[in-house]
Amino acid sequence: MKHLTFLFQYIVNPKTVGAILPSSSFLGDKMIEHINFDNAKYIVEYGPGTGVFTEKLLKKRNPNTIIMLLENNEEFYLLLKEKFKMEKNLYIVNGSAEKIEQYLQKYKVPYADYVISGLPFASLPEQVSHNILLNTSKILDKDGQFITFQYTKMKKALIEQFFTKIEIKRELRNVPPAYVFNCSIKEKNVEENYGIENSYCG
């Protein structure tokens, strides 16, 4: 049933949904493999869709960890509200990731340790992508990570404008195969003192 829902939403909203099928469990595992669930206090997910990544986050998180889901598609939002209605410390917001700062303030979330994203930057308007990445870099904790997947590397240069370290891994067991971008911002003094390169690519 969720596959049919996803396919219909792709037909109606191809630029914001970005794929004809939900992400695979294999891709989900790769998206969360670097999350320190013992220490993470706040996790944000952009574009959770039918909740493939969300289920994994909820299963592994510390019960006290707050998770915020930001879903712009109303049908997916309603599906998520019903699917996860019994979960504690979970906020589900129907809105744009461009306004993440506003939503964090509303729910008194001071920052994000991790931001997980299923947004298709390749098909979003350039300015929208710019705003989302800029605001994401603002809300992350100093050791925070932005983790996104894309079907090509064409937006790597755009993401590098906001994140100084990017590690990329490929997941072939997805339709279509995807690249996972693990992004962070290194402190200036580390770059200067140790001369570490600005970008890493798998």
TrEMBL record:
Swiss-Prot/TrEMBL keywords: Methyltransferase, RNA-binding, S-adenosyl-L-methionine, Transferase
Claim: Transferase is one of the keywords in the record: yes
InterPro entries: KsgA/Erm, SAM-dependent_MTases_sf
Highest taxon of the lineage: Bacteria
GO MF: methyltransferase activity
Pfam families in the cross-refs: RrnaAD (PF00398)
Gene Ontology process terms (BP): methylation
UniProt key word Transferase: yes
Protein name, per record: Methyltransferase
Origin species: Alkalihalobacterium chitinilyticum
